[in-house]
Each structure stands twice: as C-alpha cells, then as structure tokens.
Amino acid sequence: MLYCVCLGHGIILLLFLFSSVVSVYVEAYDNLLSGPVAQYTALSQKIGGDLLNPVIQEVQAFREKNRSSPLFNHLSAVSESVPALGWVAMAPKPGPYVKEMQDAAMFYTNRVLKDYKEKDKMHVEWVNAYVSIWTELQAYVKQHHTTGLSWSQTGPVASASRGAPAPPPPGPPPPPMDLGKSSGGDSGATNHNALFASINKGADITKGLKHVSDNQKTHKNPVLKAQGGPLPSGPKPFAARPTAAASPARTLPPVLELDGKKWKVENQEGAHGLVISDTELKQVVYTFKCNNSTLQVKGKINSITLDNCKKLGLVFDDVVGIVEVINCKDVKVQVMGKVPTISINKTDGCHVYLSKDSLSCEIVSAKSSEMNVLVPNKDGEYTEIPVPEQFKTVWDGSKLVTTATEIAG
C-alpha cells in the first residue's frame, strides 16, 4: 500500500471530530472521502511500495529516511502537502492554508508526471487523484468552514440537523448570604454585635492595649534579636523555574560514497576539497545537508541535486539531465561545460555561473529569492544579472499575461 494510511487515517480522524454533529458539512466530507480519497487509496494499493504512518511528523521523518527509494518523489509530494490536514487549527481563513500546502507539493508531483508520463500511466492517475484531494478539500473548507470550524471547539456542540439535544438551562442563582447568621447559630449574631460595639468606642478602643517597653522590643534589644534569628524580610519574588538544558544536536557522520548509481554526499561540514572524478553517464549525485563546503564533479553525469545545503560551492563539467537546488541557502553553482536545465526551489541566495557552452540553459525557479546568474564576457569576466522575484499578472481579455517586474527602490 502506498501513502494511503497517512492520508486516510488523518481524514478519518477529522471525520471522528465531525461525528458529534451530523450536518450538511459532514455529509459533504463523506462525499470527499468516497470520491478523491477512495480513488487515491485504490491507486496507492495498486502501485504498492513504501508504507506511511498516520502521523504528520512521522510522514516527514519517513521521507527523510527513505531518500534512496524509487518512489522518493511520491513520498516528497505527500510529505510536503500532508500538513494541510491541520487546517482545523487555522484561523481565520483555513482554505488558503490548504492551497498553500497543495502548492508545496507541486514541485514533486510535476517530477512524478515527468518521470512516468511515458512509462506508467498509473502514476499519472495517482498524481491526479492525490492533487484532487486537496482541491476538493479546499473547496469544502471554503464552503462550510470559511472563517474557521463551524462547530464549537470549547463549548456545547453547534446546532445541527441531526444531533443530541441542547443541555438544559442553568438553575436560578443561590439566595444572597445573610451576614447576620453563621454556622454557629445565634453565636454569630452575638459576635457581630460585640465587634460593632468595640468599633463604636472610637479612640477609647486602644485603652485595653498593653504598653511594650524598649527592652521588650526585638529590634531594640540585642539579646532578643540574637535569640529570635533574622527578622522576616517580606515575600520574595518568584524564582525562575529551572529549564532543562537543550539537548545537543545529533551530528551524523559525513558520507561520500557511490551507492549503486547514486553518489551520496551527506553531512559534510567545512570540507573544501570534495571531488567526484570516477563518473559515468548513468550516475547521479545527491548532496544533502552539506555546509560551508565545496564539491567538484568531473566528467559527464546524469543529474546533480543539492538539498538542504548552506554555503556550498558546486563546480561540475557536464550534466545531461538537470541540476536541482532545493531548500538551500547561500549556494554557488558553476558550470564548466554544458547543462540543459537548472531548477531552483525554496532557496534563499543562489549564484549560477554559466560557461560559454551553457548559455542556452533553462533556469526554472519557484519560491526562491536572491538569485543571480553570472554570464561570461569576451574578456573572461562575468556580468551578474538578478533573476526576477516579483511578477505582474493582467487579464488581456482572453487569458492571463504574466511579466517580470523590478522591485521599486
């Protein structure tokens, strides 16, 4: 079974929350389950492969542990979008949150479509079924829970067409207390009368007090002061609650090895001489969580991926497929030979140095910032050109037209 346990159980959990109120929006949710979710589950069972757990955090952890899986793009699509199930906690507009999570998976669903479009139509149907779940969920939320959950989250259940009757109204408040009475019977009234009689004495109320001489006062008698110990200093401020020491981050061992057809470069820190030289056309390079390092890939290779890297420099000769930069920060990529496509996704800070032979390269970017392409001049110097991050879209009467704009200022 493929990925269906996660999504299925998550939706079943939400359905359980709805079960206390059987109304029109619950019936609409049933239609969602019997439609796109059922189709997605059936296709997942046919494809088979890796099985996911029902907890969102475990889904994401499972994806990280199975990066070598042949269905890694499927796993990533589910991992990136499954937080949409948390729309119940989003306010005031949970619908756009579902759309945002759906868009987060688009990069990986597009890769699945690209890989299987000519190979296996079932995977294409799987993508369509999976995407339709979030499309239908967004429409459902927009219609029935526009500004948040339609039922009460803390108090009585909201009104419904079929449901439990409302709780009975609260009883009348208790009668006011009679200050003239006490649990001790008539003695309460006697005590009150004695108290008011004492107050009515005015200044004479102090005549019954005993005079205390200086030698009987603790603060003026050193002997009494020594016997009584330190004087109380009043209430002390609350002491800060001790906090547990933060557990140190687990450091994973660095990796640079060939695993089948994949060169794995992982967890490198401050390594400025990483070189992959014995390459073949069918091989790929996958670089994960490498920081403040440099990597050189010699020869002609199929593809290169940088994932979750910071301050990494990549230099390579030729790539016949694609170079992908995902979830990175402050990276530099230099092409010495040729590459047809460079993809930059969810990355802040990326410099791409093109060679004369790679000027026809297509650069595709999404959800990224601070991107610059450096083009070589005749004298060997580079001209730096920023990649647009802001766009303008207008309706020309028949279609939407989008153009890049420069940020003012």
UniProtKB/TrEMBL annotation:
<dbReference type="GO" id="GO:0008179">
    <property type="term" value="F:adenylate cyclase binding"/>
</dbReference>
<dbReference type="InterPro" id="IPR036223">
    <property type="entry name" value="CAP_C_sf"/>
</dbReference>
<feature type="compositionally biased region" description="Pro residues">
    <location>
        <begin position="165"/>
        <end position="177"/>
    </location>
</feature>
<protein>
    <submittedName>
        <fullName>Adenylyl cyclase-associated protein 1-like</fullName>
    </submittedName>
</protein>
<feature type="region of interest" description="Disordered">
    <location>
        <begin position="151"/>
        <end position="192"/>
    </location>
</feature>
<dbReference type="GO" id="GO:0000902">
    <property type="term" value="P:cell morphogenesis"/>
</dbReference>
<keyword id="KW-0732">Signal</keyword>
<keyword id="KW-1003">Cell membrane</keyword>
<dbReference type="InterPro" id="IPR036222">
    <property type="entry name" value="CAP_N_sf"/>
</dbReference>
<dbReference type="InterPro" id="IPR013912">
    <property type="entry name" value="Adenylate_cyclase-assoc_CAP_C"/>
</dbReference>
<dbReference type="GO" id="GO:0005886">
    <property type="term" value="C:plasma membrane"/>
</dbReference>
<dbReference type="GO" id="GO:0005737">
    <property type="term" value="C:cytoplasm"/>
</dbReference>
<dbReference type="InterPro" id="IPR001837">
    <property type="entry name" value="Adenylate_cyclase-assoc_CAP"/>
</dbReference>
<dbReference type="InterPro" id="IPR016098">
    <property type="entry name" value="CAP/MinC_C"/>
</dbReference>
<keyword id="KW-0472">Membrane</keyword>
<dbReference type="InterPro" id="IPR006599">
    <property type="entry name" value="CARP_motif"/>
</dbReference>
<dbReference type="GO" id="GO:0007015">
    <property type="term" value="P:actin filament organization"/>
</dbReference>
<dbReference type="InterPro" id="IPR053950">
    <property type="entry name" value="CAP_N"/>
</dbReference>
<dbReference type="GO" id="GO:0003779">
    <property type="term" value="F:actin binding"/>
</dbReference>
<feature type="signal peptide">
    <location>
        <begin position="1"/>
        <end position="23"/>
    </location>
</feature>
<comment type="similarity">
    <text>Belongs to the CAP family.</text>
</comment>
<feature type="domain" description="C-CAP/cofactor C-like">
    <location>
        <begin position="253"/>
        <end position="387"/>
    </location>
</feature>
<dbReference type="InterPro" id="IPR017901">
    <property type="entry name" value="C-CAP_CF_C-like"/>
</dbReference>
<dbReference type="GO" id="GO:0019933">
    <property type="term" value="P:cAMP-mediated signaling"/>
</dbReference>
<dbReference type="Pfam" id="PF08603">
    <property type="entry name" value="CAP_C"/>
</dbReference>
<dbReference type="Pfam" id="PF21938">
    <property type="entry name" value="CAP_N"/>
</dbReference>
